[in-house]
Amino acid sequence: MVDFSIEVYSYIRVTDNVVFLITSTTIATWIIMGVLIAFGIVVRIQSRQWDPVKKPTRLQNIMEMCVETFEKFFRSSASEKLDYLAPWFFTLFAFLLFSNISGVFGIRNPTADWGVTFPLAVTSFILIQFVGFRYHPKSHLKGFIEPNFLFLPLNIMGELAKPISLSFRLFGNILGGFILMSLLYGLAPFVVRLIFPVALHLYFDIAAGALQAFIFTVLSLTFVGLAAGD
Amino acid sequence: MHHPLAFVIFGAQIAAAIALLNGFLVTLGQGKVAAAAVEGVARQPEARGAITTTMFIGCGLAETTAVYGLVIAFILLFANPLINNNIDNLMRFVGY
User: Fold this and answer.
1) Distance of CA B13 to CAs A4, A59, A225, B7, B90, Å?
2) Among A32, A114, A193, B41, fewest CB within 10 Å belongs to which?
3) Could you tell me the maximum CA-CA distance found in chain A, to the nearest angstrom?
4) Do A214 and B56 touch (CB under 8 A)?
């Protein structure tokens, strides 16, 4: 039988009602965190030897290209006063990219769990409100009663719909890809399983995964940039 | 006499299929997005990068409704609140 559900490996009981589950999502998230943190530490140690005057090393070239591309891209949808948020969005993109691609290694994608995507979308929601209230407190509040006060519930619903649509878009896409892949591995005959999954992995995990990570980051960034105004 | 949950499962499967039908219109919408992007690139080849980025964002937004349908279909099939919320129970009633 093919099983798509999240496996629970262990749990930590805090009180009778609060139980932390150690699921496949948790393990995969820890692995991805470990990889990203280890990579960050390696780059940090290497960067001590980097000299702007000398010829750049290979890793330096790659890292500079990543950061420059992201900075250019960040500038296109947010102004300079939001620069302190750029590391957050870069981290978000790196985490989502790695967790969407992790299906290639046979892990159940962490983003195929609504418990991962919804908190990420809620952080975007909090950022939107924070930035809106910080830079334009009056016009942000006034935006809720545009065009008149009868639209207040509608505008509040519109704001609350943002994290839900963000999280469901990512979750549904990745879960759909994961279910198709596990159906293929579970039900297809052995000959089909030899070469054929490569093309599907290429699409569902790498292409669609990178696209969805990109879209999640871009939409959060656009909402935050709009809330901050010019 | 059938099991009383049999009708619930029957309805859920048909409802899941209907929930996926919105893929028709979403595909039409995404086709429009891609067509407009191609027109834009043909008119202004130098703006290719910006148009591609915007097209991907537009496709992602247009896809949202299809993904909602997909999530609803998954919920109906694998996490149906009317059926004891357990895939093993469901599979047992289906006959596995």
Assistant:
1) 17, 52, 42, 10, 12
2) A193
3) 64
4) yes
d(CA A198, CA A203): 9
- pTM value is 0.85
- A39-67 b/e with 16+ CB inside 10 Å = b? eeeeeeeeeeeeeeeeeeeeebeebeeee
Nearest CA in chain A to B65: A169
Condensed to tens digits (0 to 9), the pLDDT of residues A117-144 reads: 999 999 999 999 999 999 988 888 888 8
Q: Which residues of B touch A172 (CB under 8 A)?
A: 67-68, 70-71, 74
Report how far residue A76's alpha carbon sits from residue A86's, in angstroms, rounded to the nearest whole number: 12
pLDDT digits (tens, 9 = 90+) for B21-44: 999 999 999 999 999 999 999 999
Length of chain A, in residues: 230
HSE-CB at B26 with a 13 A cutoff on CA atoms is 18
The maximal CA–CA distance of chain B, rounded, in angstroms, is 69
> With an 8 Å Cβ cutoff, is A115 touching chain B?
no
CA-based nearest residue in chain B for residue A214? B57
Q: Respond yes or no on whether the N-terminal peptide bond of residue B4 is cis (omega within 30° of 0).
A: no
CB contact under 8 A, A169 and B78: no
Question: CA-based angle B87:B93:B95, to the nearest 5?
Answer: 105
